Amino acid sequence: YPTWKRTLTRRDREAQMKRFCKAQAIQRRLEEIEVTFRELEQQGIKLEKLLRDEGGTPADQKTQWMNQLLYLVQKKNSLMSEESDLMIAVQELKLEEQQCQLDQKLRGYMSKEESLKTPEDRAAEQEILVQLLDVVNKRNVLIHIQEEKRLSEL
Question: Contact, 48 vs 23, CB < 8 A?
Answer without folding.
Answer: no
